[in-house]
Amino acid sequence: MTTIEKCIRDLSDKNYAADGRFPRYWKAADDLSFMGPAAAAPAVPTLIKLLKSSDIDLRWNSAYALSNMGSVAVSAVPALITALNDSHAAVRAEASKALQRIAPHLNNLIT
User: Could you give the 3-state DSSP secondary structure of residue 55?
Assistant: First the structure.
C-alpha cells in the first residue's frame, strides 16, 4: 500500500515508476484518489504549490488530484481560481472541474 508520505514525495517526480508504464507523479495522483479525501488531505499544500509550477504536466496533475479530494481541498480554491487563467487549456479545464467538485457553490461564477 502506498503511504501518504510517498505520494507527496512522488507528486513532483517525473521519472517513471518501477513498472515503466507511468511517471511517478501520475501514479501518486491516482493513489491519492484511491486513499480517499480524508487520508489524502495532507497532500493539499504540496498540490497547491505544484499548481504554480512552470511545468504544465505538474500543474495539470495537481488540479486533477485536487478534483478528486472534494471539500478537504477547500484551501486550494484560491490557487485553482488563479489556474483558471493558466496559459494551457488543459490546466484551465482541470482547474474548473476541481472547483466544481470542491466548491460547488461557486459554479455560477466559473462556468
Answer: coil
Taking 90 as the threshold, does the pLDDT of residue 53 lie above it?
A: yes
Cβ(57)–Cβ(90) under 8 Å? Answer: no
For residues 43 and 7, the answer to whether their CB atoms sit within 8 Å is yes
pTM summary value:
0.90
Among 65, 21, 15, 13, smallest CA distance to 44 is for 65
Residue 63: pLDDT band with limits 50, 70, 90: very high
Q: How many CB atoms lie within 10 A of CB 106?
A: 14
70-103 burial: b if 16+ Cβ within 10 Å, else e: bebbeebbebbbebeebeeeebbebbbbbbebbb
Please compute, for residue 69, the number of CA atoms within 13 A of its CA located in the half-sphere on the CB side: 30
The structural domains of the chain, with segments of one domain joined by +, span 4-110
CATH number for the domain whose boundaries are 4-110: 1.25.10.10
